Description:
The structure holds 2 protein chains of 2 kinds.
Chain A: E1 4-11, E2 38-39, E3 42-43, E4 64-74, H1 113-125, E5 129-130, E6 133-134, E7 137-140, E8 150-153, E9 160-170, E10 178-192, E11 196-200, E12 205-209, E13 217-226, E14 236-241, H2 244-263, E15 272-276, E16 281-284, E17 297-298, E18 305-306, H3 325-330, H4 336-347, H5 351-359, H6 363-373, H7 378-395, H8 407-418, H9 424-436, H10 442-449, H11 457-470, H12 472-479, H13 485-496, H14 503-515
Parallel strand pairs in A: 14-15
Antiparallel strand pairs in A: 1-4, 1-10, 2-3, 4-13, 5-9, 6-18, 7-8, 7-17, 9-10, 11-12, 13-14, 15-16
Helix pairs in contact in A: 4-5, 6-7, 6-8, 8-9, 11-13, 11-14, 12-13, 13-14
Chain B: H1 11-16, H2 22-35, E1 42-45, H3 47-63, E2 74-78, H4 105-112, E3 116-121, H5 148-153, H6 175-182, E4 188-193, H7 199-205, E5 208-211, E6 231-236, H8 239-249, E7 280-281, H9 290-296, H10 319-330, H11 333-346, H12 348-374, E8 379-383, H13 392-395, H14 400-407, H15 412-417, E9 421-428, E10 434-440, H16 446-460, H17 474-483
Parallel strand pairs in B: 2-3, 2-4, 7-8
Antiparallel strand pairs in B: 1-3, 4-6, 5-6, 5-9, 8-10, 9-10
Helix pairs in contact in B: 2-3, 8-16, 9-12
Amino acid sequence: MAAPMLRWCCLGRRWVLACIDGGSRHGRGAAIGFTSSRKRGQSSVAQQPLITAQKSRKGEHKWAAVVGLEIHAQISSNSKLFSGSQVHFAAPPNSLVSFFDASLPGTLPVLNRRCVEAAVMTGLALSCRINKKSLFDRKHYFYADLPAGYQITQQRLPIAVNGSLAYSVCAGKKPSQVITKTVRIKQIQLEQDSGKSLHDELRSQTLIDLNRAEGQLRVDANISVHHPGEPLGVRTEVKNLNSARFLAKAIDSEIERQIHELENGREILNETRSFDYKLGCTMPMRDKEGKQDYRFMPEPNLPPLLLYDTASLPPGADPQQVINIDWIRERLPELPSETREKLVQQYGMLPEHSFALLNEVGLLEFFQNVIKETRAEPKKVTSWVLNIFLGFLKQQNLAVNESPVTPTALAELLSLLDRKAISSSAAKQVFEELWRSKGKTPSQIVSEKRLELMQDEEALERVCHAVMEGHPQVVMDVKRGNSRAINKLIGLVRKATLSRADPTVIKEILEKKLSS
Amino acid sequence: QLGRRLSCPPVSAALKQGQITPTELYQKCLSLIKKTKFLNAYITVSEDVALKQAEDSEKRYKKGHSLGDLDGIPIAVKDNFSTSGIETTCASNMLKGYVPPYNATVVQKLLDQGAILMGKTNLDEFAMGSGSTDGVFGPVKNPWSYSKQYREKRKQKPHGEKEDSNWLITGGSSGGSAAAVAAFTCFAALGSDTGGSTRNPAAHCGVVGFKPSYGLVSRHGLIPLVNSMDVPGILTRCVDDAALVLGVLAGHDPKDSTTVQDPVKPFTLPTLTDVSKLCIGIPKVTLPFYYFTEMLSTQFPNLQNGDNNSHRCDIDVSTEAMYAATRREGFNDVVRGRILSGNFFLLKENYENYFIKAQKVRRLIANDFVNVFNSGVDVLLTPTTLSDAVPYLEFIKEDNRTRSAQDDIFTQAVNMAGLPAVSVPVALSNQGLPIGLQFIGRAFRDQQLLTIAKWFEKQVQFPVIQLQELMDDCSSVFEIEKLGSVSLKQ
């Protein structure tokens, strides 16, 4: 049927999200999650009584928030999870729909091997236990974009459980104040995606596209608040968030809303909400009324999914028909944590830099290509890539692969800098020029703009001498012990040389002269 | 191809030898279909499609390139199998006008062997029923209502009118297919079997009704009733023909994940001579099956609301309103009742007490069979039905649910266990109507089961239905009778 989806449930520890003291509600520590097990689409949290007997007085008790995330991630595969029809981004509506996708009577689901492999890989990458036997279920509800009247998912026994993900978070204002946190992954399950609905308000109709190759990542957040030590509060679900930024905003605003409601003596409804981007807060979704019973039942047309490892593989098994977890594990690509560790070891870079390099698509590759082509120190390269290069990208909202500056160009520039052929301020100028006009090499730009550092020391000495002659007062200041005055002299010399002299060399010469 | 048959020429041999051509055979069957229209066995007669198929078959025979024993043989298919380009209704308003774009795997396999698809046969709506009386196109009449054997017993005049208000039901839900085969309008028909829907009408219509092991034959394209119990069924006039068709249909289908992977070779049934070592078990039937089957039949919530070409009511206020009205208009009471029951049993608060419990009982039933077969029994033997065919007017005195519960009593457990079973006509009742006996075999021992059934068939020598007085043109019937079966009747 649909584009295959992986669904992750993230759980973390129930730590305090925010300390409320005298009305302050800020501060985000760890991302948190559910500990309650979700039975059949309903949370057991919802059934726990909320303690209303003790009315919380404003500002007195601390609040803890519990957040669980349901992440819908589309698997990168050529065909859909159950139907064999292809997956292509942005194909014309309903052009990639098989008979099964359209729920024509008599059609049956057939599991896509590649999707199962992707799920296993994801499970392994997230340190989950892979269930050697997992089951498929039907989740029934009626909606125009679900022609079968049910969605095939893995409710009872999903393919992977009990994983975790380590991540870093800024604990303070300085970038170096990074701490590592862990979030629990409750489970990973394979499921069908529904079709896409386009609501045409004008003609009071909804158009359905059953291709389903849209929305590569979607998150639903489940949020509740409670006082530490007390039972969990009623949760709400905020659906269909598709960017990390809005996710954070939505969660924050919902936590605020819930605290506000509770502190004013009201109750939280177990409901589904959506996030209004313009207003910056969550709103109840009109079309969901009350709790829905999805009438889960086993999917009768898909036998249990059996996975093997090398030890349990039946002899003479057809490799086309079986999936070997060990084989997949061996073929896992290097995971980000490993890559970051290598970067720190190899280049002596700070951990936060390794995170930054991996957080932007293509940036690591860019960095490594620059390193390959220059003798400049890795620390210099890191600094240039993360500060200047990345800065320019962000300013113009470009992706790494859209950069007008190639790794080769940057490498060449850094080599010039390393050789002291140009000063660092000159280098920045060159970079700007590289960014603006493609096709020119750094060397070309340097010679065009005459940015080469003065190599002639004698000439430089003459300039220094001239400046000292022209500013006797400043010279006096220096001799009197004002260490900062020398910077003025340096500045004057630089100006005189049109920034073509290396400030450190200038300083050396001046100091020599001043001490004589 | 050689050595499958032994003595007097069956129809496929006749075709091969040019004694009759596919188009001639087609014409004869078509003419019989028209003459027996009052039976209401067919919902759709695909005249033009079948003629083209017959012509193609004829060309092949002329060149000596026949595809096999089924090449040129007229068949019929129950109207819950998807047939490309031919309306598929499940005898429901919901699918009236629905023309599928694909063939069910079993249909495709038959067509690939050169079979001639004469039409789609009538059934209970969505195969829910045991009488073939509850479809929107009306009930199917049992050909035996008009047989000499029956009428003589009722002391009716040999030349009685066709219109007989006390006509008999065929049983169901594959009544149309059973009637089509019994009335010689085709040589084989596909039915479906979820609780006895192939075996029951076979018994009432005096034909062979075979239910294969679950997982042996593909369900892709069979519009489901209970996914874990449905199988395509085969209706023929003799056991050899059923075996022939099974040989074509059996085998793994990548489009149906519930079919087994093991390769299946086509086979010919051996002729048993010594059955002294065979152990036939006869069970005492005491279990009240029905309530459990109802709970198991909970896969109705997924019944399609309809699609592009199917029924849709005019309400457009909201999707929900449209769905509700469409369901009321499109489904009959039986179907709606079962859908609602299914939804009820799957509610969270009921799941454990009903659905899970039913599954457990099902497991016990399946285990019972395993134990019996492990104790040395080769096949089980039971009556197929409680009685011979009853008149329609009597049948409808009880509702569908009650009838299904009663009529499936010998057959339902077989579907729960996924075993192969076959109903073989044995004798006429004292009303002159067919009685069938059911053999039940071990899972995937379909061939062995049919071998025993074939031996039995030879022992009992069930009489041919005598429909002559009904037909204006007796010759058609005579000729088809002579040809009798695709394969051989000793």
